[in-house]
Structure formats: C-alpha cells, structure tokens
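Data card: per-record layout.
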Amino acid sequence: MSKARILAVDDQLYFRELTEGFLGDAGYDVQTASCGEEALHILEREDFDVILTDLVMPGIDGSELVGKIKERRPDQDVVMVTGVVDVINAVDAMKQGAVDYILKPFDQAALVDSIEKILKQRRLRDEHARLVEENLEFMGVLSLFERAAGFFGTLAVEPLAERLMEALCFETRAQSGVLWATDKPGGRTLQLVGARGLVRIDGEPKTVGFDEFISVWCPALKTARSVVTTMPEDANAVEALYVPLRIGDLTLGVARLTDKLDGERFAESDLAMAEKVGELGAIALNNAMRFRTLERLALRDPETQAYTQAYFEDAIRNEIQKANRFSHRFSILRIELDTSNHAAPDSLELARTVTGALRTTDLLALNEAGVFFVLLPQTDALGAGILAERIRRSWLGLKKGERGEAVTTLQSVSVSYPADGGQVESLMTLIESRAAESRIGLLATRPDLLEIRALDPFFDRLLEQGNIQPVEIEGQVLRFVLEDAFRRPGDRGVLIMSPGATWLAEVLETLHETRGRDTQTEIVMLADGTARQDNPQLTWISKSSLDSRRPFLVYYGEGPAFAMIGSAIRIEGAAPVFQTTDRSLVEYLAFELQRELGILISV
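The structure for this 603-residue chain is written out next.
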C-alpha cells in the first residue's frame, strides 16, 4: 500500500518522469499531467493527497491552477515547483493557497522531505479536527446529560412528558412534537400525554393501540431506534421523525417530531441526538410510572382499595393541566350511601359495584366520611350522569337479589370541568353544595315518589307540587329552554319534550327559527299525530305509552338542569305547571324517559 497519492503537473516530460521516479522509489503512488487543463480533468474523477505543479506552463499556469484547485477543494495541499528566477511568483502563488514551493533542479531527498512534511502537517491537522469534533460531540452529550438530569427529578408522567418534548424539539430543532405513552410498563395502549409547538391537539388521536401504531403509522419502528418518514394520510407528505422510548424490548412511548426549523430535513445527527434523549427519557418515564404505581399502592384504602382524598385532589390538578393542554373535559362524580333508614353502611360492596362500572382510566377515591368520588377523564356532565345511573341500577339489582328489597339507596351528584369551575377547590365546593341540595331535594324528602314505577302518575304527583301560571309564561319558558340548546353549541345534553296541543305552536315556531344552527344536544320530540318537520337535529317519536295530551319538557346536560310539567287543562288563560331546577330530579326524569322511550344516550 502506497504512502500517499501524488499528482505531478509539468509541461516538460523530463521533470514528470523525474518526479514520478523519485517519489515512486520512495513508496508513493504518482500520477502525472502535462498541463493545467489535464490536471483539472483528472481531479474531477480522482482524489490526491498532494499536488505538485510547475509554475510556468502554457495555458493555465501554476498560479492560476492553484486558484482553480482551491475553489473546488479548499483543503487540497498544493506544492509549487519553480526555478530560482521565479521565486517571487511562487511566493505569490502560496498566497493563493499553495503550502510550499520547491526549486528546480531538485534532488530526491529534498522532494521526499517536502512531501513528508506536508503529509505530517496534514495528519496533525486531521487529528486536531477529529479531536475538536469529538470534544464538541462530548460537550454536546455532556450538555444533553445536564439537561436530562431534570428528567429524573420529575416523577409525574404528564410534566415529564412536557420536558421530554421540550428536549427532543431542542436537540433536533423541530418546531412541533407529540408524545404518546403507555399507562404502565408493558401496556399496549398509547395515550396522548405531551405536545409542543405547532400541533393541532384536536386532530391527534387521544388513544391508539400500540400494535395499530406500529402496523399503520410507522412499521419500521418494530426494529429501528428512530425512523424518518412521512406522516400517515398526509397529502403534503410532511416529514416526521419517530422516536420510540424503549427499555430493552419494552416500549413505553413514541414521540413524533415535525416541522424542522428553516424547512430543513432531519439529518443523521438529529436522529442520534433524539435517540439519546429517547434512551434517557425512557428510563425517567419508567421511573415515573413505577413511582405512580407505588404511590397509588401507598395511598389506597386497605379495605376498598380506593385512593385517599389527598391523592384524588392531586389527580384532579394533573387532570386540569391535561384538560387545558389538550382541550379535554372531565367530570367528578360523588357517591354516598343513604343510611337515613339506619342501615349499616356497606362501603366495600359499594366500592366493588362502582369499580365494576368504571373504565381503566377512571379513578375511585374514598374520603374519611365514607363518601366515594370518581374522576372521569374526557367525560362531560351527561356522561357522568349515565355512569351514575348505571351504578345505581347495578346497586339496586344487587340489593334486591340479596334481600328482596333495596336496604340502602345511593345519592350521587357530579360536576364537570370547565363548565362548573376551573380549580380543584371550586369544583369540590360545588359538588358538596350539590350533594347538600340533593339531600333536601324532592326525591330525598319524598321517597314515596320513587315507588311510582310509571311516568304518567309520577308526572301527576309532580303537578300537584306546582302552581297556577299564566299560559304565556309557559311559552316564554319553553322558548328560552329550547333556544338554550342552540346557545350552547359545544355542550352535550338531552332535551326531551312532548308539546301536546298546548305547547305545539310555540315549539314549531322556535324550531323553525333555530333551523340550521348547530347543537350537540339531542332533542327528542313526542308528537303523536303531528306533521313532522324535516329537521335532522330532531328525533321524532310518534308512539309511546305516555299520555300525549300532557305537555312536558326535561333538559339535562352540561350546565343546565330543568324540567317543566304542564297540564292539558286551561282555565281563563292559566294552567297548573310544575317547574324545577332540582338536578337530581331532572337527571332521574331524563333517564326514566330514556328507558320508557327506548332512547340510547352514549357516554
């Protein structure tokens, strides 16, 4: 193997052969060119460690050749060969980039010594550059480790996810990032836990199965430490860098980075730094998940396995942060046993009943007074009401099956975020206030009402609690409630009404005025024998077991709770009417009507 490759450029054959002979004997691989043009053609195809060029040549002379070489290859070492009379010109050539000059005539020792000195300097230069690069890389890694130290001081998953996204975006110069993580080590469902930059949170899946993520989104992640690809179903083919957070074969999460600064593409160095962050982040995430598991075990009631009130309130604070970041809603459900009949409380059995109705993401807590609370992520007020009704039905069926009658009944109330408050304290204060109202509400003070199994006689009893009102008042209230469903287009609810002949004209007029406006409230209309309006926002029911002559309205959802029971009989422009904002009663009526009419309301 030769010591180095040399290109010798001289218009005189004698000096080309002399140079080739001297350097060839010394162990160098030598190629020659007879002019500057030929030398430039050779340099387009081949690389050389050193170029020797004569100064005086026809066409492109040595000085011009040095300039052209340096334009193409700034780091190329060039030695000028010249006679004594042209030393001044040789010095000028060195100013253009030549590293040395040799005087003609030269001997082998002088030529070889010059070449070896140049090669030695080049080796020293390369070694210095390598050391600088390694030092810079070391400093970068050291800086990364210093920043990553903050990971291990964060033992809550959501704040840690935010730190991870900040670090990944900083190291790769990505402007946007999203992080999905499992709920526990070994979990197979990824949940959206972190986002940064120019990300449309509402367009990102909140949960996605890990197997689906790998098979549909980024199959290359099965084996790779990171992958650069285009986002799935993206018409603009936006480049994305996917980084798995792995410990061994266990994947705890996947980060997706996009929108690199200045529109650049992700380079190998970006992948390397992202992988380092991912390795450290996976360790920190695993620690946080394990800590959360230990914390939950330590903060559970030993009998019911429900969490303590302190842990529950911390969980609410974390949920508020997530809700603000990802535009979520959540609800809190309060459940307690009614022991007014002096029955012994059965907290363990109730805990089992409640737990059986919950999702894996829900969280059950028990305070010192024996009251249960449930945190329901991504659940609105209507969803909380559906869950409460499911729990009540399960409890009623359990007690009847055991003793033939319900010994204790359940009382439940709920609040939702952000409709009912923005802080833990305000939410917990309101839910206690609603519980107090529920204890003095009509269903609690008149338990005989719950013994009425049919809705028509139930409505008759409620109407007995009402008073006489002018007919126009009914119409005004009806119009206000119906329009409220459209004033709250983003709030989900259910509005069930039977206008009868009494309210029909008012209802049809209001529906015509609100036609085309958006609402998430499900409006159900009982209109026996009435010509239906072609309105996609309405569900029409023409046949039911209820008395079609009696007008009624029940409105339950995010925020409002209202019921109005009217009478088909009018006397001198007035009629008996029952109105209530008793949330527990309105909720009861909404779900009794749901069952009676066969309406399906989803969580």
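Known properties of this structure: The chain has a mean pLDDT of 83. The chain has four domains: 5-123, 152-296, 309-439, 455-597.

See the next section for split statistics.
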